[in-house]
Amino acid sequence: MSYFQIAWQWLTSAQQWHGSDGIPVRLVQHLQYTGIALGIALIIALPAGLAMGHLRRGGFVVVSVANFGRALPTLGLLVLIFVLTSGSPASWLVPLVVLAIPPILVNVYEGVLGVDPDLTDAARGMGMTEWQVLRKVEIPVATPLILLGLRISAIQVVATATIAAYIGLGGLGRYIIDGLARDEYNVVAGGAAVIVLLALAIQALFTLLRWLIVPVGLRRETQTSR
Amino acid sequence: MSWAWDNRALLGHYLVQHLYLALLPVLFGIVVAIPVGVMCVRYRWTWPPVLSLTSIFYAMPSLALYLILIDYTGLTDWTVIIPLTLFSLSVLIPNVVDGLRSVPPPVRQAADAMGFGSLRRVVQVELPLAVPVIIAGMRVATVSSISLVSVGQLIGIGGLGYFFIDGVQRDFPTEIYTAFILIIVLALLADSILVLLRRWLTPWEAGRKVRPGSRILTATWPGSSAGGAP
Fold first, then answer.
1. In degrees rounded to 5, what are phi and psi of residue B43?
2. Which of A73, A110, B2, B130 is geometrically suited to a Cys-Cys bond with B99, CB 3.0 to 4.6 A?
3. For the whole model, what pTM was predicted?
4. ipTM of the predicted structure?
5. Domain ranges in chain B?
6. Which residue has the higher pLDDT, A14 or A148?
7. Average pLDDT of span B172-197
């Protein structure tokens, strides 16, 4: 049997859709981990990126955070924190937040920094305060890149939240870790399929969001000139 | 550190495996990305479908792909190398396209006026000028690949990731942070080598200050470059 048949069989058998180890429960847990990590990352990275972009300084910090963040092995960070805190169940949170911060920070900073100075000068000339310049000009113009940063973070976190199961938590990673441990490939195959589908769904969701949120004029410009 | 010294042979073995698993995909990636990128710039209609494909590759969770591939490639190195190659492609193709498009039209016209054929123009004029943006993409692909390899240890093929799983099973932090630090050092070292490579390949850029927020930085996230999200 090929992978797709194995995964399909597992996905469509009724027992997978009920109970505390069913797909709906695991999916909700998985989305909770993702949501909490993204929320915290957003609270840290969004104001920081907006401030540094608006003040046009801190480029070095942003580049360093981006480079260093990519270099950190998430699994290593997870097990390190897990062992050092002698098995704290909250160990999953730090690696996922660390993973989510760089893409948001870089893109928010880039987005605000990239706003045409003519626009912000005009806004100031009209008597806007710095706060109004940020809120009414820079943030709307930077929306495409801000969304892009969020999308990259969301996809990485949703894919990586799988490893929370390695330290005994729930989420979709349970199927993978348990399936591997018990040598049940059909469980692994099904779990992997659900994670891939979830990642693609998030990608699609952000494409939709882009259509809904980004102003029409900007949309055309970002598609042709960037 | 005495643990690391006592186990240097084992560390060395996994270090070599780690580099091999991480760098081969970037190598495969760049070999494929350059012709594909050239094609996408030359035949514009091919770009939107290729861009959609790369963003799907980018969204593919590497761990899930390792698991799916077990069924086809078994527990071999390819099970890790193939997903990382797709990931590298998703970063490199947009960067190659972006780099080629950043060549100013007058430069291209000058090459045409000097009688360059289109192949020679691409190889001798456009690709060299695109080097900074292409290398920016290679830096992202390489550093990410080095840190992503360790997740492969969940299926038993993960280079230095071996020490993460072994360390947590034996409750032995020394082992974990030795591998942790080694991976970060490897990533930053590879990154520096690529920066040196860029300087060596583009001597004319020397002394030109790269403004933070220029496209060298923008191009480092897939989708942020040429064309934006599909």
1. -110, 90
2. B130
3. 0.86
4. 0.83
5. 2-227
6. A148
7. 93
Residue A107, chain B, CB below 8 Å: the answer is yes
- Judge contact between A71 and B146, C-beta under 8 A: yes
Which CATH number fits the domain B2-227, given the four candidates 1.10.3720.10, 1.20.1280.290, 3.40.47.10, 2.40.50.140?
1.10.3720.10
Evaluate whether B149 touches B158 at the Cβ level (below 8 Å): yes
Using the structure block, give the residue that is written with the tokens 């490639």.
Answer: B73
Tokens 């490893």 correspond to what residue? A163
> Rounded to the nearest 5°, which phi and psi values hold at B179?
-65, -40
- Cα distance between residue B19 and residue A193, in whole Å: 29
Burial A155-172 (b: 16+ CB within 10 A, else e): bbbbbbbbbbbbbebbbb
Query: CA of B137, closest CA in chain A: separation in Å?
Result: 12
Instruction: Please provide the DSSP assignment of B199-224 as one string.
Output: HHH-GGGTT----TTSHHHHTTSTTT
B55: nearest CB among A159, A166, A203: A203
- pLDDT higher than threshold 60 for residue B210: no
Residue of B nearest to A110 (CA): B213
- Determine the pLDDT at residue A43: 97
pLDDT bucket at B58, cuts 50 / 70 / 90: confident
- How far away is chain B from the Cα of A127, in angstroms, using its nearest Cα? 27
Q: What is the overall mean pLDDT for chain A?
A: 88
Quickly state the pLDDT bin for B1 (edges 50, 70, 90).
low
Interface of B with A in 56-75 (CB under 8 A): 56, 58-65, 67-68, 70-72
Handedness of CA B108, B109, B112, B116 (dihedral sign): negative
**Cβ–Cβ of B213/A226 closer than 8 Å?**
no
Hey, what are A134's tokens?
Answer: 């940020």
Of B153, B180, B188, Cβ closest to residue A80: B180
Mean pLDDT within B79-97: 94
Contacts of B140 in chain A (CB under 8 A): 70
Confidence at residue A6, expressed as pLDDT on a 0 to 100 scale: 85
Instruction: Calculate ∠ Cα B105-B205-A102, nearest 5°.
Output: 90
pLDDT of A191 over the 70 cut: yes
* Collapsed DSSP state (helix, strand, coil) of residue B59: helix
- Check residue A96 and give its pLDDT: 94
Of A3, A106, A199, the CB nearest to B60: A199
Amino acid at A7: A
* Six token digits for residue B181: 């630090």
